């Protein structure tokens, strides 16, 4: 549900009108709009924002590990509308046990490498990704080094 203080932002209202169940929360802080989106709705919301709201540029996809909190991960999308000179951040909370979320490569082909990087470093699976494999580390690498519970000392053999 869209918080009342975000009803003055046209993009937030448009997303809620598109799919009210998709919006789980949000905030406006430091001149930046952030919407929390249900993980199962991220691809459809991104498609709406790209094709109906002119957010044609995906600036990045990244993640945050909130270990030991649950849901453990935030998958973060930064979108840019060149036409309207506007930006919006989308966040999806993903559980730590078997972390999965929809891929947005069907909306932006450029999401391919961003999602591969998040998979490689955090271990988050992107359902529907055309080629989800490691991009930075060797194929035989064990673990995901940006997880907060990844060992930083001792042998990794």
Which regions are unreliable across 5 or more consecutive residues at pLDDT < 50? none
Q: How are the strands of the biggest sheet laid out side by side?
A: 1-2-5-4-3
Average pLDDT reading: 95
Strand composition percent: 25-35%
Counted by DSSP, the helix tally is 3
One letter per element, helices H and strands E, the order comes to HEEHEEEEHE
Q: What gap, in angstroms, lies between the N and C termini? A: 47 Å
**Residue share in helices?**
10-25%
CATH superfamily membership of one domain: NADH:ubiquinone oxidoreductase Nqo5 subunit
The count of DSSP E runs of length 2 or more, i.e. the number of strands, is: 7
Gist?
By secondary structure, the protein is of the alpha/beta class.
């Amino acid at each position: 549900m869209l918080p009342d203080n975000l009803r003055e932002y046209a993009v937030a209202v448009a997303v809620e009108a598109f799919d009210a169940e998709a919006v789980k929360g949000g905030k406006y802080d430091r001149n930046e709009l952030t919407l929390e989106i249900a993980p199962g709705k991220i691809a459809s919301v991104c498609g709406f924002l790209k094709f109906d709201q002119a957010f044609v540029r995906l600036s990045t996809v990244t993640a945050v590990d909130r270990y030991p909190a649950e849901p453990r991960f935030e998958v973060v999308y930064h979108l840019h509308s060149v036409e309207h000179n506007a930006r919006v951040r989308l966040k999806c909370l993903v559980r730590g046990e078997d972390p999965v979320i929809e891929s947005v490569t069907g909306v932006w082909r450029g999401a391919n490498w961003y999602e591969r990087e998040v998979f490689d470093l955090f271990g988050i699976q992107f359902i529907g990704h055309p080629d989800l494999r490691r991009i930075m580390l060797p194929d035989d690498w064990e673990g995901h080094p940006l997880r907060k519970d990844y060992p930083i000392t001792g042998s990794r053999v």
